[in-house]
Amino acid sequence: MWTHEHDELRRSLSRFIDAEINPHVEEWEAAEIFPAHELFAKMGRLGYLGLTKPVEYGGSGLDYSYSVAMAETLGRIDCGGVPMAIGVQTDMATPALARFGSDELRREFLAPTVRGEFVACLGVSEVGAGSDVASIRTTARKDGDDYVINGGKMWTTNGTQADWCCLLANTGEGAVHKNKSLICVPMKTRGVSVAKKIRKIGMFSSDTAQLHFDDVRVPQRYRIGEEGQGFIYQMQQFQEERLWAAANAIEGLLGCLDTTIEYVRERRIFGQAVLEQQVVFHRLAELKTEIESLRALTYRATELYIAGQDVTELASMSKLKAGRLLREVPDACLQYWGGMGYTWENRVSRLYRDGRLASIGGGADEVMLGIIAKAMGIFPKQLR
Ligand SMILES: Cc1cc2nc3c(=O)[nH]c(=O)nc-3n(C[C@H](O)[C@H](O)[C@H](O)COP(=O)(O)OP(=O)(O)OC[C@H]3O[C@@H](n4cnc5c(N)ncnc54)[C@H](O)[C@@H]3O)c2cc1C
Q1: For ligand 1, atom 30, which residue shows the shortest CA distance?
Q2: Which in 28, 108, 122, 376 has the greatest CB count within 10 A?
Q3: How many Å apart are CA 222 and CA 73, to the nearest integer?
Q4: Which atom of ligand 1 approaches the CA of 132 most closely?
């Protein structure tokens, strides 16, 4: 699967991160926002925002292994918020539009998003509906040639800066898996408001918003694909989101391990280096093995995905494993730093805070376990 083109992508993106992102991370973390338009315009010019998007809309038309290579490399960024915001733009808010959107819609929304002129966000979760996506309440009612949208979205990454939202709304009555549509909603439309920017325990540089939609009128031609297929499209879109999240975890986890090894090699207690305690070097060796298992699982899922197979089970396993390791690895490493691990600026303590999201966002660990159990045929029938 991996070629020298993947290596070149990893090398050039690493150079970009070193020059254009990492020097600003501390400032963006402190400001609790990063300049999405400025950064995305630079990334768009270099082609990073459309690796897998169709060539007709400014993308490179590459297979999904390139997104995985990019997600992995973005793990070298010194915080979780900026890579997450980039992932929303490339692999969470845009896959359904790229695959099912009309030509007109892709020219209007996808092409400028690939160029980095538009910032995108994904509006699925609501105050009363997160894990249970089918129970969302936001509606888009037909009126003439328009939809009139009412409701609200919660936890919207990029929400305070976005130019448009890939919005999941109920467009009809009937079965909850067949009554929804994805709609491109320009954020400057009258009736769209950012209710609040949410303060969080991590991912500081990424803005997270609560959005309100109050009689928001958009043309029906802004719907992505067929009416009533939105839930299905979103579940497909989640496959890429979950593979992306798993790949993005790997470098951060390895970096956490490496910086800890450097520290415990030097730090001496009771006359010897902390690293010389068997319990410590055994644990670090165990964790490295776990991270490499995550990499192997994610690559296997990617390989099958680009071969056209259904990887719901493997993508869910990858996301689950990433969430688990993002809790386990920084927690173990932080312990070996002692008091220094409990300080704010420490890279390990940042991953401890930022990484906690991975077991919740984009489908909680328990949701992944339910999907895996269904694929295994062991999910009890009486449970939905
Ligand atoms: C920083 C951040 C950024 C986000 N960005 C976006 C975004 O850009 N767009 C978007 O649409 N959403 C976004 N989300 C929302 C995220 O996807 C949801 O938080 C997630 O799906 C969980 O939903 P919830 O928070 O409503 O938790 P709930 O659905 O209330 O679940 C609470 C807990 O219940 C447990 N649980 C859930 N289901 C089961 C089950 N079947 N069996 C057993 N236990 C279960 C889990 O432990 C879960 O954590 C973001 C969230 C955060 C925190």
Answers
A1: 130
A2: 122
A3: 33
A4: 29
